[in-house]
Each structure stands twice: as structure tokens, then as C-alpha cells.
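Hi P.,

Sorry for the delay on this. The queue was packed all week, but I finally got your sequence through. Input first:
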Amino acid sequence: MKRHFLPTLVCTIVFSLEAAGAQDGSAYRRFNTRDGKAFYAVVVEKTTTSVTLKLQDGKTVTRTIRELADPDQNYIRKWTKFKDELLNSSEFAKLTVREVLELRGYQSFEFDIEGNHIYVDGLVNGKAMRFMVDTGADSSMIHNGSAEEAALEIGPYDQEVYGVGGKAMAAVTVVPSIKLGDAVIEKRKLLATDLFKKGEWKKTYDVIFGADFLRELDAVISYREGRMFLKPDNINKPGGPKGAAPNDVKAEFRRWTMADGKTFTAALSDKNTTEAKAIFRFQDGKMAPLEFDKLGETDRHMVEGWSKLRDDLAKQPEFRTLTVKELLELRNYQSFDYRMEGNHILVDGTLKETKTRFLIDTGAHGCVLHLAFAQKAGLEIGPMTERIYGIGGDAPAALSIVPTMKIGDALIANREVMVADLFKDLKTLKGEGDYDALFGADFLRELDAVISYKENRMFLRPEISDKPATAEKPPAK
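Then the structure:
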């Protein structure tokens, strides 16, 4: 019997991105020295061992790279004039993250947010279904009633899935096809289980779209833009290796989707805004116009926002090699590594003065602390009269006030959180678990959190947190 561990019913990692805060030519980046001092500056030039920085007062200083904190050393070593020119381009600063990612070959589509849960529409075996995006799930799952509606064959209930409410039995089912946008996943195993505890909870979705598929598709999720981004070409296609470009297509060509669902591969060469027509160049050199409204919503948006700068960026080899980390650091995000335990994303931080392992969980409406850890940290805990819900049922919880909680430079102070036994029924299997607290969607959305699956990094905007007044303020916009 195989066991599957989920921290809560919904454990979705969110990639919250925004165009606000994109820099212009006078923008300054926050740097930290190895002894913890912070300052704002822009890079002027560098050598292999030193960097020249322009400070906010206009003065320039030269420091050895080794004087700076490790993340800033890495940033400077990867800094180039090309990236600096992007930073100083007023048109690049106006690009939304959606536009930047779509230039990198991502497909995007809208999602709904209800109670901090992210929902997208798709197809299972040709039947329309609602997906709840959940990176906390080791394996994707389908509600057993929905599996029956899609005529899926369900195996014996010999699997166990665990959540904050305890455990539930599950069965393996093979799904002929799962479709989200242009991403089609074929002949994959899902776990079928009663996701809604025999009708005691209202059924709000059919499928938990887990970390197995999100990682495979290099998913990016933007709360502020209300869109989910996937790389459909990452899916294993019959007869081809993972991530292989079909027909060895050159980078300037991409796959476009029509309003009727048909696709074609071409490069966008020009457009006529007056006539609302795009001019496409095909691989054989032929040119053809196409009305904007004949394209699918995502590609129509891209064409309408297309410009020569965007076209030049799409063709620029160095732009195509920029990572999500580098793109976000140009926009004042702080990043740091996370580690994965199974498919759970863990980040180190502190609660008061106590070292803490946070599980990043946007499916949790708010932050939840493990009871034993909250007691160890010396928090005042109220009566266990609240309830939290997850796979396997519900569990008692209490309220507590956290004086300070910190991840990287982001500080959250004097906030109400929930306290519960997060490892109900798991103690005999895994001890007290791999983490101390769920870092919930309230804080992730507040800090514009970003998760990059491909790069194993987490991003936050520390300057919008309750940070202490020990660092210089950023320049006025």
C-alpha cells in the first residue's frame, strides 16, 4: 500500500507577479553586505573581483564582490550590460510579466480565485472539469464521483492519502487525456478519492492539479494578473524527448492558437493596427496576414501588445537565456533557494527568535502553526474551539498572535494565525513532520510571492513587508 502526504486539502504554490514596481532608469536595487548592512544602488561596471556602484546620493563606490552577501554576489556575477539596458528601457519597464513570459514561450489563461484557492477549467477524457491547482499534493487526484462521470476505470482502494484532517483511502485510475489550454497530458495515473467527505463539504472542483504536473509544465502563477502560465511543449510527446522543439523550430518561431483551437507555427513579422491584422512569416519564408479576432484570446493579446522591442527581445539570444530569477530581480524581488521534500516546498525562516521550517501553502487561507512548535516558540495559544479542514476530515484549532515572522528580508509583525496539530495520524509514520508551519495565502499574496519550479527558488517583495527601519528606504518613484 502506498501512502501520499498532503499538508492540507489545498496546498497550492502561487507565483504572484506584477508589472507594478518595474524599474526605470533611476531605479535602485537593495544590496546587503556580509555583516548585514543594507543600501540601495545601481551597478555601473564590474571586474572579476570588484563592482562599481552608484548610490542614491549620486556618489560612486567600488567594493570587492566578496564584501557583499551571497545572493548579491551571484547577482553581480551574472550582471551584464544587456540586462542593464533592459532595466533602463522605459518600454521594457512597461511590459507586464504576462507579456514577458509569453515572449519566452509560455501559454497563459485566466484562473478564478475563491477563498484563496485557484481554479482553472480543463478537460478530463474529453469531459469539462474544474481543476484546483495544488502544489502540495505529491500526486494529482480526481474526485471519485467525477472519475465515474468521465467513464474512468477506478482500481481498488488500496492507497492512503493524508491531510490535516487525517487519512483517506484512494485508488489508482489511468486517465486517457488531461487538457489545460494547449497542454495535453496523455495516459497518466491519478489517485481517485472522495475529496469532499461524502457530501459533508460542498463540491467545488473535480481535480487536484498537483505538483507532478506543475513541475513538468514549468508552471508560473500570477495572483495579480489572475493568470496561470504553462510550457505546453514540455509535455512528453510520442516519439520525442521531453522539451524537444517540434521539427527543430528556430527560436523566433512559435506555436499560435486560433480561436477555433487550430494551431500553426510562424514568426510575427509586423502588424497593421488600423486594420487589426497581424503579418506572420512562415518557415518557408512566405508571409500571410491574419485578423486579430481569428486568434485565440492569449495570442490575440500578445499580438495587440506586440512591438519592435518585443520582437527584438524575442530574437535576442541573451533574453531567451534570462531566468525567471533574473527577470524578477530586475523588478525588485528578493530571491532565495527552497528545498523540496517529496513535492512539498520548504523555506527556512524565523518565528520570534525560533528557527522555523515553513511549508509554502497558498491553499491555506491563513498561516497555520503546528501545535507543538507554537508551544516550543512560547506563543500564547487560545482554546481549541476553531476548525480547519483537509483531506481526511477536519481538526480542532486555536488562534494565536505572532509577534514577528520572517522569511529572507520580509518581515510580518503582530498577526493572527491558526494553531493546530498538522500531523494528525502521521506521528507513527513520520515523526512530527518535515515543517513547523504553513505559510499561507494571506501572507504570500501580501508579499507578492513567486515560486519558480524550474529554478527551485522563491521570490518575495520585502520592501512591502513590515520590515524594521534598519535599512535605507528605496527612492521615491
